[in-house]
Write a structure and sequence with these properties.
Blueprint: H1 9-29, H2 36-48, E1 53-57, H3 60-70, E2 77-81, H4 87-95, E3 99-102, H5 114-124, E4 126-128, E5 131-134, E6 139-145, H6 156-165, E7 169-173, E8 194-198, E9 212-216, H7 219-229, H8 250-259, H9 263-281, E10 304-307, H10 311-320, H11 350-358, E11 359-362, H12 370-385
Parallel strand pairs: 2-3, 2-6, 6-7, 7-8
Antiparallel strand pairs: 1-9, 4-5, 5-6, 8-9, 10-11
The structure holds pyridoxal-5'-phosphate.
Length: 386
């Protein structure tokens, strides 16, 4: 048996007809830029994310970059984030000219540790007038960028409380977490100033290419992002701001409008698969840790990530048996070559480093059959029985 990490063909087949019809409608209209499909998608995703506003953009990465630009983050600024995330989280911070400032993760959820953020701010930063300064660089700490990793909302109650006290802006990297919610039912992207979603094909809601969205409850910020999305020109050809081309394609919006009504069922199927794995891998609790889902919260399992010190050997064992896996992510961001100028050293963020060495994502996509789930569980058990 083969169990790929992800098989998008199984999602496409039953929806091929309405998807192709939607694409044809856009082709017939020949309106490819910011048309009715984009407006519909923005309204739907805003509502889905419990936000007043949503702005379709070209990718999750561009959503993050646009959010940072709209908040005026740039040279001389520092943005606090997790070192254990996809590159774009810190990559976009650096691209604005600001410096990514890392705090360690919670080893249980793999999300940014609210306690680490609080003690960093209390112990290593100083108030000077209106500014919060990081004396080591002289930079102003302006914003916090938590990541809802693998589809589970970070500890936003604590992080927002800290952000309010230190007057930090909050940009949520919700690229993996559309529809995820905390214990009170509040959805990813709706806590901070701006939430950033990705519709990369491997995310729970995937386009036929690149696309993303910025959600917000702040009308002024939304308006600013709307202007920056098209080179900062308003009225057209009159530029008070330097923006970029951050537009989402009408074709991608049309695809996403067909898929969005199915998202809840897909995320529920991922949760069912996760429960199946949880039960099947329980007997290995001494050797292997299954994901910790916060009680009462809504984890949408963009990834199902286990942890074991024998990660690499287990991965090889699974590969040999036709089970696709991936490591999200093998190198914490403070140890990336391009961030050497930030001065990160091995040992700086021990929990992130341990997670990078021990975590492994198993196939979790909605269409997995029960036979496939059994096969993966048996393959993992088989490794520990050798
Ligand atoms: C996917 C992802 C992004 C970037 O989204 P793209 O649409 O691929 O540009 C950013 N952050 C995280 C955590 C992601 O998983």
């Amino acid at each position: 048996m083969q169990v790929p990490l992800l098989d998008l063909k199984q999602q496409y087949a039953p929806l091929a007809k309405p998807l192709l019809a939607a694409i044809e409608r856009v082709c017939a209209s020949q309106q490819f830029i910011l048309g009715p499909e984009v407006r519909t998608l923005e309204q739907q995703v805003a509502a889905y994310s419990q936000c007043r506003h949503a702005l379709g953009v070209s990718s999750g990465t561009d959503a993050l970059l646009l959010a940072l630009m709209a908040l005026g983050i740039g040279p001389g600024d520092e943005v606090l984030t997790s070192p254990f995330t996809f590159f774009a989280t810190a990559g976009t911070i650096a691209r604005t000219g600001a410096r990514p400032l890392f705090c360690d993760i919670d080893p249980v959820t793999f999300n940014l540790s609210a306690a680490a953020v609080e003690s960093f701010l209390a112990g290593h930063c100083e108030r000077r007038g209106e500014d919060l300064i990081y004396p080591k660089t002289g930079g102003r700490v302006r914003a916090l960028m938590p990541v809802h990793l693998y589809g589970q909302v970070a500890d936003m109650a604590a992080l927002m409380e800290t952000a309010r006290r230190y007057r930090l802006k909050v940009i949520e990297d919700a690229a993996q977490a559309i529809g995820a919610a905390d214990e009170r039912g509040q959805r990813a992207g709706s806590f901070g100033d701006i939430g950033c979603l990705s519709f990369f094909p491997t995310k729970n809601l995937g386009a036929f290419g690149d696309a993303g969205m910025c959600v917000s409850n702040d009308a002024a910020l939304h308006e600013r992002m709307d202007i920056l999305r098209v080179h900062g020109g308003r009225p057209k050809y009159h530029h008070a701001l330097i923006g970029g081309n951050f537009r989402i394609d009408e074709l991608q919006a049309a695809v996403l409008n067909v898929k969005l009504p199915h998202l809840d069922a897909w995320s529920a199927a991922r949760q069912r698969n996760a429960s199946f794995y949880d039960a099947g891998l329980k007997e290995l609790a001494a050797q292997l840790q299954t994901p910790h889902a916060v009680l009462g919260a809504r984890h949408i399992y963009n990834q199902y990530v286990i942890r074991t010190p024998e990660r690499d050997a287990l991965r090889q064992h699974l590969t040999d048996r036709g089970v696709g896996t991936e490591i999200y992510y093998p190198v914490p961001l403070h140890l990336q070559q391009c961030f050497a100028y930030l001065g990160g050293r091995p040992g700086d963020y021990p929990q992130a480093e341990r997670a990078a060495a021990e975590t492994l994502a198993l196939p979790i996509y909605p269409e997995l059959s029960e036979a496939q789930l059994h096969y993966v569980i048996d393959a993992v058990r088989g490794y520990y029985r050798r």
